[in-house]
Amino acid sequence: MRYATLILALLVACLTLPATALEDTHQPLIAPIIEAVASQNIDAISKHVRFPYHGTYPMPPITKDQFTQRFDEVFDAELIEQIAQSDINSDWSTVGWRGIMLNRGIVWVDYDGEIIGINHTTQTAKQARDALIAADKATLPKELREFESPILKWTTEHNTIRIDELKDGSYRYSQWKIQQQRLKHPT
Q1: Which end of the chain is more exposed for a tag (fewer CB within 10 A), N or C?
Q2: pLDDT tens digit string along 59-89?
Q3: What is the DSSP letter of 139?
Q4: What pTM, to 2 d.p., does this model score?
């Protein structure tokens, strides 16, 4: 019981590490991002994004060449307003090696001034993701089609392996031989 209390205390301490106000040396990294987003100039915004940009699985990464076409998957009016109206002194903060964040992590920027993550899902991205999941389910063996969200899928030389989150919040690991295209070891 004593170890459980200690582990819980350490976990709480780690999760509540304070973000620090944005230092003057980091403000020149954020100001151009705010300006580009406020202008809603897609080319200017793209100069501040690390490519390929990775959204939520199973969405394919966005390359620099695709950014204009797929812009609505990443940015919508709500996110644009949050960034454009942000105060560089109070809304942006550094979080150690993790980088710079806006409003407790809605947008993450590295120390090179590139957007590396966005914790906001646009309606366009949600619809595209739902369509990809539906298409994926149609290709699976019948016994694997019931899941809430795919977490990971990879292929080795001989096997397909995947992890899915189920509707009850648990996770399912499954593996099958590629040649067989049928379930090998469900768990």
Answers
A1: N
A2: 999 999 999 999 999 999 999 999 999 999 9
A3: H
A4: 0.78
Rounded Cα gap, residues 182 and 85, in angstroms: 52
Q: Which residue has the tokens 């509540």?
A: 16
User: From CA 88, how far away is CA 27, in angstroms rounded?
Assistant: 7
Q: Cβ distance 171 to 165 under 8 Å? A: yes
- The dihedral region occupied by 181, where left means phi > 0, alpha psi between -120 and 50, and beta the remainder, is left
Q: Please identify which residue in the block is written with the tokens 């350490």.
A: 10
* Contact present, 125 and 55 (Cβ < 8 Å): yes
**Three-class DSSP labels, 11-46:** HHHHHCCCCEECCCCCHHHHHHHHHHHHHCCHHHHH
